[in-house]
Specification:
215 residues, 2 domains, Rossmann fold, alpha/beta, 6-stranded mixed beta sheet, binds magnesium ion
Length: 215
């Protein structure tokens, strides 16, 4: 865990969580999500699955070779000519959180504790329907006041647009907002760039430590 905090912290910050890899850990589901999108891309480009996967890999490798930060899958799809609406629709149609996620009683109790002092929000690169369904499957939907999803801005993190949209609905100065996520360049860096604070976690179990850290 790495903290990007400027104490003293307010007792009533807004905590903006990432979803995948932050509120649950399920590598098979995360892989299935990506594979379901590659299937759609392959149809769109008229390629085989491995042909489409190779196109994605080439873009990722080219960015890495130029020392650019990792791009979101959505951004890679845009580069390959997929429209914003199609990116959202493919995810709505093919990602089914209830098949993969189940209630996490410990996470429920930790987020319930956090939500007594702090407002909780979600900022995700998935559409709102997938985000809502995921939080419901984990049994934590009621803890969240706001969800900023892909179909709010049609920009994927690390683009700053989802963070700006979050600040608009949170109606709080950026320094009162703490973003919690599992990828520095995607979740944390853009938030710090807008004056927010951040907590980078390595595993979702580190979310269990947040009440102590924010005390
Ligand atoms: Mg994540």
């Amino acid at each position: 865990m790495r903290l990007f905090l400027n104490p003293p912290l307010r007792r009533d910050c807004v905590l903006a969580f990432d979803l995948d890899g932050t509120l649950y850990d399920n590598p098979n589901y995360i892989r299935a999500q990506e594979e379901s999108q590659v299937v759609q891309l392959a149809q769109f480009l008229g390629l085989s699955f491995s042909g489409a996967a190779a196109r994605i890999r080439d873009i990722r490798q080219a960015r890495a070779a130029r020392n650019l930060p990792a791009a979101s899958l959505g951004d890679i799809f845009r580069k390959l000519g997929v429209s914003d609406n199609m990116i959202v629709q493919w995810r709505r149609d093919n990602i089914h959180p209830r098949d993969w996620l189940s209630e996490d009683p410990r996470l429920q109790s930790i987020l319930t504790i956090l939500s007594t002092h702090h407002e909780l929000a979600l900022i995700t690169n998935n559409p709102k329907s997938v985000a809502t369904e995921s939080l419901r499957a984990l049994g934590i939907l009621a803890c969240f006041t706001n969800i900023i999803a892909l179909d709010d801005t049609f920009k994927s993190k690390p683009h700053p647009a989802p963070y700006r949209a979050f600040l608009d609905v949170a109606r709080r100065p950026p320094e009162d907002c703490i973003v919690i996520g599992d990828r520095y360049s995607v979740d944390i860096e853009p938030a710090l760039g807008l004056g927010m604070q951040g907590i980078l976690i390595e595993t979702p179990s580190e979310v269990y430590l947040l009440p102590e850290i924010l005390e």
